[in-house]
């Protein structure tokens, strides 16, 4: 007797993948749940972020600067930096940040909290407000994390 779990990953005309998980689910699933799972996996891979003059340990919420000094990040700063780093090289809108990091509906709220958090985060990272090299501003849209050159 077959159970639901035996048949839910079978797609007509496709061979079963010898017990290996499919890269994408083959049954109805809410897209944002799947995206959140994938992003969660990706974010765990980037717990240590190299900077041009130091590094950030996201799991400890700590910035280590090249001169040996350290600075603690708030939980929200860690969440924001983790999200931007997981999307490195891509411009992330303020609305997306509000939805994904703050869990707020951008249509229901008008706020400059993203800009203030980015400004504080830049200060802790030693990133210039005038010429940022880590957290870049795309005026009128959002922000982009620029990974340090390897």
Please outline the helices and strands.
Blueprint: H1 4-7, H2 31-45, E1 48-51, E2 54-57, E3 62-65, E4 70-72, H3 75-86, E5 92-93, H4 94-102, H5 113-125, E6 135-138, E7 142-145
Antiparallel strand pairs: 1-2, 2-3, 3-4, 5-7, 6-7
Helix pairs in contact: 3-4
Report on the architecture of this protein.
The protein has 5 helices and 7 strands. With 150 residues, the chain is of the alpha+beta class. The strands form 2 sheets. A 4-stranded antiparallel β-sheet has the order 1-2-3-4, with no helix packed on it. A 3-stranded antiparallel β-sheet has the order 5-7-6. The longest helix is centred in the N-terminal third of the chain and has 15 residues, at 31-45.
Please summarize what this structure is.
The protein has 150 residues and is of the alpha+beta class. It contains 5 helices and 7 strands, in the order ααββββαβααββ. The protein has one domain: Arc Repressor Mutant, subunit A.
């Amino acid at each position: 007797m077959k159970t639901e779990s035996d048949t839910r990953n079978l797609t007509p005309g496709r061979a079963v993948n010898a017990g290996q998980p499919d890269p994408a689910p083959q049954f109805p699933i809410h897209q944002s749940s799947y995206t959140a799972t994938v992003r969660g996996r990706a974010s765990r891979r980037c717990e240590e972020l190299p900077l041009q003059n130091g590094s950030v340990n996201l799991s400890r919420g700590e910035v280590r600067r090249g001169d040996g000094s350290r600075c603690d990040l708030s939980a929200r700063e860690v969440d924001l930096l983790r999200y931007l780093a997981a999307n490195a090289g891509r411009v992330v809108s303020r609305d997306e940040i509000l939805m994904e990091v703050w869990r707020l509906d951008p249509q229901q709220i008008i706020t400059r909290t993203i800009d203030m958090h980015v400004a504080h985060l830049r200060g802790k990272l030693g990133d210039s407000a005038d010429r940022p090299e880590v957290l870049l501003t795309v005026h009128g849209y959002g922000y982009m994390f620029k990974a340090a050159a390897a």
